[in-house]
Design brief:
Radius of gyration of chain A: 45 Å
Radius of gyration of chain B: 22 Å
Strand content of chain B: 5-15%
Distance between the termini of chain B: 40 Å
Shape of chain B: globular
Helix content of chain A: 25-40%
CATH architecture of the largest domain in chain B: Alpha-Beta Complex
Helix content of chain B: 40-55%
Largest sheet of chain A: 7 strands, antiparallel
CATH superfamily of the largest domain in chain B: Spore Coat Polysaccharide Biosynthesis Protein SpsA, Chain A
Shape of chain A: elongated
Oligomer: heterodimer
Number of strands of chain A: 35
Distance between the termini of chain A: 90 Å
CATH topology of the largest domain in chain B: Spore Coat Polysaccharide Biosynthesis Protein SpsA, Chain A
Strand content of chain A: 15-25%
Number of helices of chain A: 28
Strand order of the largest sheet of chain A: 27-28-32-33-31-30-29
Largest sheet of chain B: 8 strands, mixed
Strand order of the largest sheet of chain B: 4-3-2-5-7-6-9-10
């Protein structure tokens, strides 16, 4: 880069000598600006006020005045003469042809003069610059023009044009304000001038500097500011020249290393290209006793050798003397010494420059100042593409605290850029920092490492290469298994049926697998280990689909896609298998009594005796049930439903066992008929049930949905009716509230029917005589064991509630806290169990009895799903219990229904909530009462329930509490917004 | 950046062929007859989805005019000889890289959708490998597909000990073989990969690091890996470890310096999707006697102690001193220490703390010490377990990366 001086020449230049001797009006004379009077262009200011009294000087040879904006020995060229521009372009091309990369155009605002103007920044001047730029663009690629225009930013802006004048321009007004801010320990001068700095074209850039070869110019400051700067930085009048201060960086800052570093940190981090003045990188001093600005132009101090290593000439012959005083002299400050000093300013500068070059954001990013209450702190954010840097500078000589509002950057981690030190993550709270005297921080704002990895991997969906579209080999063997196991934790967490979402998975291991469906699908058994708690086992059904069907799956059920698969011919997806042909294939396995070898055992189909009649002779189309359940159901036409048991446990599933028993051994017909099962048998292991097939019961919806619809009608009819008075202790012994009868008559009758069917079911289940079904009388030890188990469950539920307290919605926290405060009292309820005089008999029961487990069918109910609570161990679910456990389950379900329907209804009409809450309570009490009344009547003479009313009630309450706590755990793991319902149930129980 | 030049004869052949879907290029001299025969066989073996593509098989022929082979009769593929770049035999990897660039350049000229570059021993020239590479690029839209080889646990230790973990830590791609004999590139990446990095000081370290180029210049372009069940036999006779180590580490350090602004902004690493089936039963390889390696380390610690002091911080020097006193059974270089040693050498390379030739030479005994430590550690592991151990080792490099960054950004000698 070279300097190209196009505004003026020396008065010794041949052009000027030729001009002064040429006749007036000749082309040669007109290379410069002449006048017969010195009164033209009177509005133009004098720049070198110390030496020049006028911009005109009389030339006795030419017998005319010539124009000069600077010294009288620097006559201005006349751009009104087209030949001048041609000559300047020729000179410019000469240098560009020599290979220079860039031109610093000196004194660019003063090229053209016009009367009645300041003769600065004129349109004609811009025309000259545009012509120069056009010449560069036409013939030279990758070259640059830097404008020296000591003007206000708004006046400099036109020198960028529309990106068609100068590529760069110095930002003159910023420089003195940096010094002012430092001395005043106030960021305002800097933020103020930057606020006045306009945007520039994208292909342009500001040139920033702290010092240069001229004086620290104070032209672009107010009078007061200028006076302050003189007082602050030029105690000796010899330090001043023209309208500025002729000093170098280090002397201006009293040779304070921290101040030098601070100002350079601002220079390097502000938007623009930093330009260092030679010698400032080693902290060179100046010589104020030299004339003009020569004090800051002394020879570079390379070494402690003669003439500072700058010249081998006789020292007396040097054009400019080297600095020799003890503080600033070349023997103390020189490049050679600083190169050998790892802690030198030179090495500091090198490191800072290298660091700056690593980040494009410094050169190209946007700048946003952060408002802080402490004005001694200058804080700003630079941002470019995905680079964000927070810069904080302490302008004070003392340590300063600051709190920064970093809204929008929450969750990000600031990393100190010099030492790559990670700072605390940004939160919603103000970000606190403390900076030492003249300290500064550059903090790269980075996403947290996990987020960064997630983002980096977001487009890298795992994919398996398969030999062909039935090529499971690369998925279910070797490396494929390990990769599949790596994908399963995230996949399981996305599946509704996966009931261990609240646990942290350590590992998923594939335990067994079998291909079926002509190798289009696979059943895969996986073991899951958790950070806490026992491991468990789950069953996956996976399939591969290719082409258009894969695209449809991606669109419709993205959560059920595990990975991408591809053969050389087509790309597809590995996905939940029941969505395709797997259900039909499973039905064939079952109906045909097929046996398939798995990797570790045998998969066996076991049809029931009635399957043939249930299935019929027509082909059945399979579809997957849409209801969200702990298992997955496939429905075949209108005749069959197959349930795939997701959680795999050793032992026959109670749903299969009870279904078979009730269908083939009893007369109880309010269940779906049992069609058969599929089980897997492995050596040294108990068999496990894979699937259950049942006849499909024609119905009007499940009991839950039907109940919600009934409740919606109920709330609609009661919304405008005055709230009923509901006794908190109302029970089934009381007469049904007349208003409940008026608004919910159908449901009350249905509840009574359900109570009766429940009792009949319990009687049927108790009718067995083999060990699996014969009722038994619990002894004291059994009741104590039950007590301990229930108390254990309860303690776990309370612990989980406590752990999750901070995550709960605010309106639930109070109820949760209240429930936790009753922990002791509630746990006492379980202790009363062994004291029951007659607890009734224990029988096989439904085990997970609620409205979702019954179907409304032709004015009656069919009872489904004897699997028990899937989250509990199979042995426990197959164990015998008091039938009142089922009763408690149904009563809790009524409570759920009342409040879920209320929530749904008042979502549309929130103003009705308070009014309807007591109607909800009335419904719950009335329906529960009818259900219980009917149940009691139908079971009255059976020994399986306590004959004593008090024992009956006490046992029922214990089971209701247990059920509510079970619900609490479930909701905490799955649906935190529904926690209010079990909490209400817990808090409603009599203490 | 300069691209490898195509000779006039080759240009004429390229023009004659016009365009191609897949260019399979060999990065070394081969027998044209064998290549043609195997190419024909591969085309027969390829499934219908791939074989419908227009293939060109390119190879470096010392005398292209004489070797020029017309397209096969059935026109499903064409043969394209090209003039190999001139390089001395000692610069083995530079020669491979130069040929790889030449192939990529041809692929760019032919507007190929995929360029598959294969090692000169033709070990990977089979339908399975071609199909996998093509799958990764065409079906999975990868810009780059890098192979995973079924190497024994004692094989490729320069790669396992330095190149792979360093590349992974720097560029955030978990790629097992950043400097592979074989790889595939999409059409868009052919031309950029064919260019010689301007940072390369000599032809010797102008190696082609495809993963580096992809990660730094095309960060959004996916990189994949494919399990190709082939093993390359590299003739090691006449090659001196120090020279090979110097060439490889010098080159990766060079790239590191040139790409500092990129890798300094990469945190963590992302898994690289991998296709194909890795063998479960990889060979364990021949056992290695660690004692000569230890002896070399101890000898180096005596003769190079002063050099190491210029390059390594006191904590590392203390650790090395401790190692010199350790019995062979106790001798183990912790992963983070080894990572920091390589990082410090990379920094010294950048800063030219000492002559770069001497610097890379001073790494050799340390590397042999690490090999001794590693082979002892994995001696009782099968290959799968050794691979898991490598994963742990590579993570240590990632965890140590902040150390590299802090040293790189502020290379003050006054550090722990």
């Amino acid at each position: 880069m070279i300097e190209l001086i196009i505004n003026h020449s020396s008065d010794q230049h041949p052009w000027f000598q030729r001009a002064r001797h040429a006749p007036a009006g000749s082309n040669e004379r007109n290379f410069y600006v002449w006048s017969d009077t010195d009164q033209k262009y009177k509005d133009a200011r004098i720049i070198f006020t110390d030496t020049e009294k006028s911009n005109w000087t009389w030339d006795p040879v030419a017998q005319a005045y010539y124009w000069h904006r600077f010294f009288s020995h620097q006559p201005d060229l006349n751009y009104d003469n087209p030949e001048v521009l041609e000559e300047v372009l020729r000179i410019m091309r000469f240098w560009l042809d020599m290979g220079v990369d860039a031109l610093r155009i000196d004194a660019i605002p003063y090229l053209v003069e016009r009367d009645g103007t300041s003769c600065e920044n004129l349109p004609e001047t811009h025309a000259v610059i545009k012509a120069m730029r056009a010449a560069i663009d036409e013939g030279y690629a990758g070259r640059m023009v830097l404008a020296e225009a000591n003007q206000w930013p708004t006046d400099v802006r036109p020198y960028f044009g529309d990106g068609d004048e100068c590529h760069m321009a110095f930002h003159f007004p910023l420089m003195p304000r940096i010094y002012m801010a430092l001395r005043q320990e106030d960021r305002l001068p800097i933020t103020d001038i930057m606020a006045q700095t306009p945007a520039i074209p994208d292909n342009c850039q500001w040139g920033l500097f702290l010092r240069n070869h001229d004086e620290l110019t104070l032209e672009m400051v107010s009078d007061d500011e200028r006076d302050y700067m003189y007082l602050a930085y030029s105690a000796d009048p010899r330090m001043r020249i023209n309208i500025g201060i002729r000093r170098r960086l280090a002397p201006l800052l009293d040779n304070n290393r921290r101040r030098i570093e601070l100002l350079n940190s601002i220079l390097f981090s502000f938007p623009g290209t930093p330009i260092l003045y030679y010698g400032d990188e080693i902290g060179m001093g100046d010589n104020i006793y030299l004339g003009d600005r020569n004090g800051v132009r002394t020879p570079m101090q390379w070494s402690p050798d003669r003439n500072a290593g700058f010249s081998r000439a006789n020292p007396a012959k040097l054009y400019s003397p080297v600095i020799m005083d003890p503080v600033w002299g070349y023997e103390a400050i020189n490049v050679e010494a600083q190169q050998n000093d790892a802690s030198s300013l030179l090495n500091w500068m090198r490191n800072m420059i290298a660091l700056r070059k690593l980040f494009q954001v410094f050169g190209r990013g946007t700048l946003r100042f952060l408002e802080t209450s402490n004005r001694k702190i200058l804080a700003y954010i630079r941002q470019y593409q995905d680079e964000t840097v927070l810069c904080v500078a302490n302008l004070s000589r003392f340590a300063q605290p600051v709190q920064l509002d970093l809204a929008g950057l929450e969750g990000m981690t600031p990393v100190e850029m010099l030492g790559y030190v990670e700072f605390p993550a940004i939160t919603k709270a103000p970000y606190s920092l403390t900076l030492g005297p003249y300290g500064f921080l550059w903090l790269e704002i980075q996403p947290a490492i996990a987020a960064a990895e997630a983002a980096a991997g977001s487009d890298g969906e795992e994919a398996f290469y398969v030999e062909n579209e039935q090529g499971w080999q690369s998925i279910l063997s070797g490396e494929g298994i390990r990769r599949l196991e790596g994908l399963l934790p995230a996949y399981l967490q996305r599946q509704r049926w996966f009931g261990s979402k609240s646990k942290n998975i350590v590992r998923v291991k594939i335990a067994d697998s079998v291909l079926f469906d002509e190798h289009q699908s696979a059943l895969i058994w996986v073991g899951v280990d958790y950070v806490e708690g026992d491991s468990d086992s789950w069953l996956l059904c996976l399939a591969m689909s290719f082409g258009e069907s894969a695209g449809a799956l991606r669109e419709l059920t993205p959560n059920q896609i595990l990975a991408t698969v591809g053969s050389a011919a087509r790309t597809g997806v590995l996905h939940e298998g029941l969505q395709r042909s797997a259900p039909g294939a499973l039905l064939e396995i079952l109906a045909g009594g097929q046996e398939l070898r798995t990797r570790g055992g045998t998969l066996i189909g076991l049809p029931s005796s009635v399957l043939g009649s249930l299935r019929g002779s027509q082909p059945l189309t399979a579809r997957v049930g849409s209801a969200e359940q702990s298992n997955t159901s496939a429905i075949f036409g209108d005749r069959l439903i197959m349930k795939l048991f997701r959680r795999q446990q050793p032992g026959e599933n109670p749903d299969v066992e009870i279904g078979r028993f009730l269908t083939e051994t009893t007369n109880f017909s309010n269940i779906p008929p049992f069609g058969g099962s599929i089980e897997v048998r492995r050596a040294d292991e108990e068999l496990a049930t894979v699937a259950l097939l049942q006849g499909l019961v024609q119905n009007e919806g499940d009991g839950w949905q039907w109940t919600l619809e009934e409740l919606d009608r109920y709330y609609e009819s009661t919304a405008s009716v005055k709230s009923p008075a509901v006794s908190a202790n109302a029970s089934e012994g009381d007469e049904v509230h007349p208003e409940a009868r008026e608004h919910a008559a159908i449901y009350l009758d249905a509840a009574a029917m359900l109570g009766r069917r429940t009792a009949e079911m319990h009687r049927a289940l108790a009718s067995g005589r083999d060990a699996a079904f014969a009722p038994c009388n619990p002894g004291p030890g059994d009741l104590e064991t039950l007590r301990d188990r229930l108390a254990g469950h309860a303690a776990h539920a309370f612990d989980l509630l406590k752990t999750n307290l901070s995550r709960l919605p605010e309106d639930i926290v109070e109820s949760a806290g209240l429930a936790l405060s009753r922990r002791g009292v509630l746990l006492t309820k379980f202790r009363t169990l062994p004291g029951l005089k007659n607890p009734g008999q224990w029988t096989r029961i439904h085990g997970d009895y609620h409205l979702g487990q019954v179907l409304r069918s032709k004015g009656d109910f069919a009872i489904l799903d004897f699997e028990g609570e899937p989250a509990r161990p199979l042995a426990e679910r197959r164990a015998k219990h008091s039938p009142l456990k089922d009763v408690a389950g149904m009563l809790r379900s009524f409570s759920y229904a009342a409040f879920v329907a209320l929530t749904q209804y008042t979502t549309r009409r929130p103003e009705d909530f308070a009014q309807l809450e007591s109607w909800a309570r009335l419904w719950e009490v009335s329906v529960s009462g009818e259900f219980l009344r009917s149940y009691r009547e139908s079971i009255a003479d059976s020994p399986i329930v306590p004959a004593d009313r008090a024992d009956f009630d006490q046992l029922l309450q214990i089971y209701m509490l247990d059920k509510a706590l079970y619900e609490l755990v479930y909701e905490l793991n799955s649906r935190p917004a529904w926690i209010r319902i079990p909490l209400h149930g817990i808090l409603s129980l009599p203490l | 950046m300069a691209a490898v030049e195509i000779t006039e004869e080759t240009k004429q052949q390229v023009e004659r062929i016009g365009s191609a879907d897949v260019v399979v290029g060999i990065a070394g001299t081969v027998s044209p007859e064998e290549l043609r025969a195997r190419a024909g066989h591969i085309m027969q073996e390829l499934g219908s989805g791939v074989s419908s593509l227009r293939f060109v098989f390119a190879w470096p022929a010392p005398e292209p005019a004489a070797e020029a082979a017309p397209a096969a009769e059935d026109s499903t593929f064409a043969m394209l000889p090209f003039s190999p770049p001139a390089l001395s035999a000692a610069e083995f990897w530079a020669g491979v890289s130069a040929n790889q660039r030449a192939v990529l350049n041809l692929a760019a000229s032919l507007n190929a959708r995929v360029c598959i570059v294969l090692g000169p021993d033709l070990a990977a020239l089979d339908a399975h490998s071609i199909q996998l590479f093509a799958y990764a690029i065409l079906e999975r839209q990868c810009g780059l597909a890098i192979p995973v080889y079924p190497v024994a646990k004692y094989d490729g230790l320069i790669n396992s000990g330095i190149l792979s973990p360093l590349s992974r830590a720097l560029y955030g791609r978990r790629v097992r073989n950043p400097l592979a004999f074989d790889f595939a590139a999409s059409g868009a990446l052919c031309a950029p990969l064919a260019r010689v990095s301007p940072s390369a000081e000599t032809a010797g370290n102008a190696l082609l690091w495809p993963v580096t180029i992809a990660a730094t210049q095309f960060p959004q372009v996916p990189v994949g890996q494919v399990h190709i069940g082939v093993q390359h036999k590299v003739a090691t006779e006449g090659l001196e470890l120090s020279a090979v180590l110097g060439q490889l580490t010098g080159s990766i350090f060079q790239e590191m310096d040139a790409c500092a602004s990129h890798w300094q902004r990469i945190r963590g690493s992302q898994a690289t999707p991998t296709w194909g089936n890795g063998s479960e039963n990889q060979p364990d390889g021949q056992a290695i006697d660690a004692q000569p390696l230890l002896d070399s380390f101890l000898l180096g610690s005596k003769s190079l102690d002063e050099v190491w002091r210029l390059l390594l911080p006191p904590n590392t020097l203390l650790e090395l001193k401790r190692l010199t006193r350790a019995t062979p059974d106790q001798f183990r270089i912790p992963d983070d220490v080894w990572a920091s040693i390589v990082y410090d050498f990379a920094l010294a390379y950048r800063l030219r703390t000492i002559s770069r030739v001497h610097l890379l030479g001073a790494l050799t005994p340390l590397y042999l010490g690490w090999v001794a430590s590693w082979v002892r550690e994995v001696s009782n592991l099968n290959s799968a377990a050794a691979e898991q151990r490598f994963e742990q080792f590579a993570r240590a490099w990632e965890e140590k990366k902040p150390y590299l960054l802090s040293r790189w950004r502020w290379p003050d000698r006054f550090n722990p």
